[in-house]
From TrEMBL:
This is Diaminopimelate decarboxylase. Gene3D superfamilies: Alanine racemase, Lyase, Ornithine Decarboxylase, Chain A, domain 1. It catalyses: meso-2,6-diaminopimelate + H(+) = L-lysine + CO2. One of its GO terms (molecular function) is diaminopimelate decarboxylase activity. Belongs to the Orn/Lys/Arg decarboxylase class-II family. LysA subfamily. InterPro entries: Ala_racemase/Decarboxylase_C, DAP_deCOOHase_LysA, De-COase2_C, De-COase2_CS, De-COase2_N, De-COase2_pyr-phos_BS, Orn/DAP/Arg_de-COase, PLP-binding_barrel.
Amino acid sequence: SSTARKNDDGALEVGGVDLRDLAREVGTPAYVLDEADFRARARAFRQAFADYDVYYAGKAFLCTAVARWVAEEGLSLDVCSGGELSVALRAGVDPARIGFHGNNKTTGELRRAVEAGVGRVIVDSFHEIDRLEALLAGSAPRHPVGVLVRVTAGVEAHTHEYIATAHEDQKFGFSISAGDAEAAARRVEAVDGLDLLGLHSHIGSQIFDTSGFEVAARRVLALQARLAEVLGRELPELDLGGGFGIAYTTQDDPAEPDRLAQELTGIVEHECRALGIVVPRLSIEPGRAIVGPSTCTLYEVGTVKAVGLDGGAVRSYVSVDGGMSDNIRTALYDADYSATIASRRSDAEPVLGRVVGKHCEAGDILVKDEFVPGDLLPGDLLAVPGTGAYCRSMSSNYNHALRPPVVAVRDGSTTVLVRRETEDDLLACDLG
Ligand code: LLP
């Protein structure tokens, strides 16, 4: 659904906007968000998962406009901090459609969530349940607070494989196998003002294969069946979490939402049938799969340096005006990205290149290996696609870099959703 295309000059156009014009208007680096693409992906999930609640995971990228688009497209919103909650509320998202995550929510955050009337609090520790109880004892909200219990199914999914042992050793969730998940559910059930609605399981990110979901669903639904006996009622909801993979390079092959929905529903229905329980109302929380492909980062080339490698080969180090402060994923996860020249056509022979930033360390790499035009020069624009998820949201001010703006493009027009930081912004926090 991307609207990106090369125009007659060989320049890249997104949302009908020539990125040379965009660079002149807002400068570089900039995150360029294709609004039609974002909405189309949100809608595709909404339609494919028609019987589900689809929570957009705001941690992937959130700003007021995006929270509003999410609501307009009929999705709910997953937030995982007071900061994300405040964006959602400012955008006018119906609080009943907000799910509040986090393994260490503060009393202040919980109070705000409860007072705002957030629809689901996904509890992640006994201490959090205590905090909620204390809070409700102080001033009971008008409606009971909907709660999901986050469980650890003992499955850690990775890109193409999943490991079904030895990953309980992490901070999230209540362990099913240790009995904590059942104890947490009973504890929530006993608190006045809390409405235990179901279980929640999130198994990982950038997953291409539903086999991890299958193992998790089997374990979570076994607990669901057990709780039906213990509590005397079947919990009405089950959240399967997010984590659906996207194509960062041409090698990745993500499933379409339709197929995902079919497979996940099939898995849950099959397990419920086997256990003799009713299929609960399902929900998912995709972040990356909605926002990731919608955005590219636009940079200007500053220097090009040919570096000789062992064996006589040469690598062209292309330095751009951003770096690990606007995309930490390559340095942090060894993530793969690609880059394309955005400002002109080049018929020059491609050479082995590496796109690097302007920060003061050698690991400041944006694109590890890419064939770039042999005639690349300072002033050329480069676009790195697929930077919508976890790039701006994990950006930093390393080296006092100013965070780039997020600019929406649509039908030939440009709207700055989040402006570029200024040195005054940074100095404002520095009290001298
Ligand atoms: N739900 C829960 C409870 C989560 O923890 C996450 C992501 C999601 C949903 C959304 O996952 P998605 O569909 O976006 O994969 N910074 C890493 C990813 C960390 C994901 C954390 N949790 C990255 O850049 O790849």
